[in-house]
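Side project, low priority. Logging it here so it doesn't get lost.
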Amino acid sequence: MKALKVLAIVFAAYVAIVIAFESMIGFFQPAGDTTLVITTFDAGTSHDRVVSRLESGGALYVAANHWPRAWYNSALANPAVQVTLDGKSGDYRAVPVTGEEHDRVDADNSLPFAFRVVTGFPPRYFVRLDPR
């Protein structure tokens, strides 16, 4: 019984760490040379999100690497997005990535194990950004 309590406390602490990390990322939205801003549109309202830019096979991608992924769901619902990259904005089409392309992009842009731990091992989904 005592081992079960300890396990429950460790699990609760881990969940709290994941929630704190994900909340800080969402609140601060750290930007840098390896990020871009994706603007999605939902019922006439635009929403900006800083995401890491990824490249594979000469194409531009972004990944939903976290549990909060409203931007990703919005991009799937309305694939006409805007991207601000290196200070320049443009219109793009968000194309969901599956199958072999998904596996290639994932292999080309693997995540460190420590990152996966602090984010709670969320499933990873990719979107290819095709210029319009």
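Brief comment: The longest helix spans residues 2-28.
Revisit when time allows.
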